[in-house]
Amino acid sequence: MRVLVTGGLGFIGSHTVVELQNEGFDVVIIDDLSNSSLEVLDGITSIIGKQPNFEQIDLRDKAAVHQFFKKYSDVSGVIHFAASKAVGESVDNPLLYYENNISSLIYLLQELQKKPEGHFIFSSSCTVYGQAAIMPIAEEAPIQTALSPYGNTKQIGEEIIQDVVKVSNINAILLRYFNPVGAHESINIGELPKGTPQNLIPFITQTAIGLREQLSVFGSDYPTADGTCIRDYIHVVDLAKAHVKALKRLMNKENVEKAEVFNLGTGTGSSVLDVINSFEKVSGKTLNYKIVERRVGDITEAYADTAKANNVLGWNAELTLDDALESAWKWEQKIRK
Ligand code: WQD
Q1: pLDDT above 70 coverage of the chain, percent
Q2: What local confidence, expressed as pLDDT, does residue 255 receive?
Q3: Is the pTM of this model over 0.90?
Q4: Which of 128, 221, 295, 296 to mutate to test the pocket of ligand 1 (most atoms within 8 A of CB)?
Q5: Domain extents for the chain?
Q6: In the chain, at which end, N or C, are there fewer CB atoms within 10 A of the end residue's CB?
């Protein structure tokens, strides 16, 4: 079976393509290169020893999506990463997010449901929980009113998929990521944020390498042990392997009435200061940072209850925060050479 990976030149997508190829799947990538580059295709090729098929397509172009499925008529599995994902940008430009993240999903599902069977894996986010009341966060935790249009597109996307699964031959799994970090051990692929990084780890590595003057820690007055926010930082390679597990699960299941949901995290919460201490330990660098005011929209704490992913999906995170930060640092040093 050929598998389509949309956003396959992105951070999580590229690592997932590698793990799919390692497991013998035949992969074709769609990416519009709006937040990635063709160098990533070279990086993937250097790891797996062959270049996956690649099509540069804007998934908002319904006709182009249709043509793709005509050309690649043997695709019956789709892992859908492609989406705009900057929380702050989504507040300023909601229609960009609703058009890009929702219409692309609809066009993919319309094509997949024409097939005798379809397997669909959706890249969702723990952001759908908002600030959950109970830690660790289980899949049954209530979905909170979205704090951003970006988060809303993930919630709407999940609802669309649930409605389609009920009345079609599509089986689906929704994967709610916590905080993906790190880089492949080969250091041939990693995170390539464009412009000023919004996320913590790329800002740390860019500060350590001298690209950024200083890291701002957004608040130290939260109700946590050291006052800084807690997150569940999951190594991107562990996250990629979970997608292969999910695809195999779909391929072995008869048609189901409801898409399964899995939280993907390590189950361990780390504060911002924990991350800084871990980075300084693995890099040997002293990080220049200062505490500033809170960032609007941040929640205090989020880390995953991993029981369902462990026991039902048969997947466990194996790599640690130190492993992730060490690989992220090696990657930063390599791309700035
Ligand atoms: C982590 C912690 C910040 C930068 C976001 C999206 C989520 C998902 C992952 C897509 C927070 C602190 C950060 C900085 C800091 N994306 N921080 N200084 O906000 O948990 O999640 O990315 O799915 O949907 O919301 O990740 O890396 O931005 O922040 O102090 O320069 O680091 O306050 O506590 P976040 P993050």
Answers
A1: 100
A2: 67
A3: yes
A4: 295
A5: 2-181+235-264
A6: C
